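> Could you send the Histamine N-methyltransferase prediction when you get a chance?

Sure thing. Input:
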Amino acid sequence: MASPLQSLLGNESSYTKSFQIFLDYSTEHQCMHEFIDTILQDHLTSIGNDKSELNVLGIGSGKGQIDLHILSYLKLKHPGVSINNEVVDPNVEHLKSYRELVAKTPHLENISFTWNTMTASDFKDKLDKETEARKFDFIHMIQMLYYVEDPGEVIKYFHGLLAQNGKLLIIIVSGNSGWERLWTEYRSQLCYTNANHYVTSDDIMKTLDTFGLKYQHFDIPSTFNITECFGANNEIGDLMLDFITETINFRATAPPDLRDNVMALLRHPDCSLEKDEKFLFNNTFTAIIVES
Ligand SMILES: C[S@@+](CC[C@H](N)C(=O)[O-])C[C@H]1O[C@@H](n2cnc3c(N)ncnc32)[C@H](O)[C@@H]1O
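Output:
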C-alpha cells in the first residue's frame, strides 16, 4: 500500500519553513559559528598555496549564513586575495535569502558570487561539460549529504576537484546524536523517498576510510529544543515534527501508532535531555575536515 506520508523534500516552501524553525529553536548555527571561530579558521590558513585567487565551492549552502562566516575568515587569513565563491543549492527561496544577505553584508569586496540553482549532481554535469578542468581550494558540504542519491559518489567526485593543499569540510549529524537513535528505530517507516537520507558521521567516516582519504573530525554538541512538539494545536511544534521526520504534516497524516511511537522516542532520554521542563533533543553534529 502506498505510504500516506508525503516527503517534506518535495515541497520547497514547506521545507524552508520547517528548516527555519529548526534553526530558530536549535543551537545549530551558534555551534557552527563557534567551531569556525575556534577550530576551522586555523585550517583555512594553509589552503591556496599563496595564490592571488582562491576558488571556493559551497554545496547545499542554504541561506548562506555559515558560508559568509567562513568567507570572512578566508578574507582574514588571505588578505588582498580575490575569492571566487561558487554556490550550489536547488532551493530558490534559500538562494534568494542568501543573495539578500550578501547585499546587506559589508566588506565583501574581493569576493565574487556565482549562483547555481541546482543539485550537486546537476552541478557535476555542468562542470563535466566545461572544457577546462576546475579546481577548488575549499569545498564545503554542510548538513546536505542526506539529500543526495549517493553521498559516497558525491564526496569522491568533489574531493577529486580539490586543488593542492585544498580542503573539504563535511558537516553531518553525529553517530551519537538523537537523529541516529530515531533513524535506527524508524528509518523503514519514515523512509519513503530514498534510503540515503539517514547518513551520519559514522557512515561518512567509513566511506572516507574506504577511499583512503586523510581527515580529522570534531564532534560538536548541539541541542534542539523540541518542547513545542508536545503541546496541542501548536503550529511551531508541528513544523518541528515535520522537519524531524522529513514529512509534510506528520502529526495529522502519520498512522497514529507511528506518530505516538516517534513522539515517545523523541522525549526518551536516548534522544533528549529533559531540563527545566524543556526537552532538548541531542543534535550533536560532526565536522570532518578532509585533506586533498
Ligand atoms: C539542512 S539545509 C543546510 C543549509 C546550510 N548548509 C546550513 O547549514 O545552514 C540543506 C540544504 O541542502 C540543499 N539541498 C537539498 N538537496 C540538495 C542537492 N541534491 N544538492 C545540493 N544541495 C541540496 C537544500 O536546498 C538546503 O538548502
